[in-house]
Amino acid sequence: MTYEDGIKVIVADASHEKYVDLILDTIREAAKKRGTGIAERTHEYVATKMKEGKAVLALDPSKQTELGDAFVGFSYIETWGNKSYVTTSGLIVHPDYQGRNIAKRIKDHTFTLARVRWPHAKIFSLTSGDAVMKMNTALGYVPVSFNQLTDDDAFWRGCRGCINHPILEMKNRKFCICTGMLYDPAQHKGEPTPVEIFQEIMREMAKRESPLPTSHKESPLPTSPKGEE
Hints:
Helix content: 25-40%
Mean pLDDT: 84
Radius of gyration: 17 Å
Order of helices and strands: EHHEEEHEHEHHEH
Low-confidence stretches: 214-229
Distance between the termini: 25 Å
Strand order of the largest sheet: 1-2-3-4-5-7-6
Shape: globular
Structural class: alpha+beta
């Protein structure tokens, strides 16, 4: 989807792997600046998310770099607990593009991507950032204790790269520096993101032959903006 200021937000694919190292460097620098911990991600991990259609990338076609369109921002999603939970993770906006509502656009796209692909899954987030908490709240997330999140060990192993991991272990995974936030689709009617984003992602997923709900009944796609009748 291309916005009025020319910024393009898309579901990434294998052709975008060239941006991975820049994405990881931007995430690390942002963590250092905030003085907070971060779960380290490898080049291969992020590239796989792109190939699987589980990553969202923001680009600026009006500015060309050695990689092509200038990198603006990124985030990805992952499923846990036999696809009963989904996380939206790694949200980052390049410093050159901060203060332009880019993070919300990316968040809306990752959230919608999760809703389209796994409409019955609970979506959760672990964050220490006020801005992310505010965006999550606007989408319908609520703060929860960690025992309401996935018990999938594979997810929690991802926290080992964070400098705060010893705290998590000391507290038996009950809480940490991050705040746990959860969106339960069973508690909501309609969708909090614009219908245009749903339509765009449905088109992109159809082109890639990615798994989609098998019937209209299963699909969360609203018939009017925000699911209003």
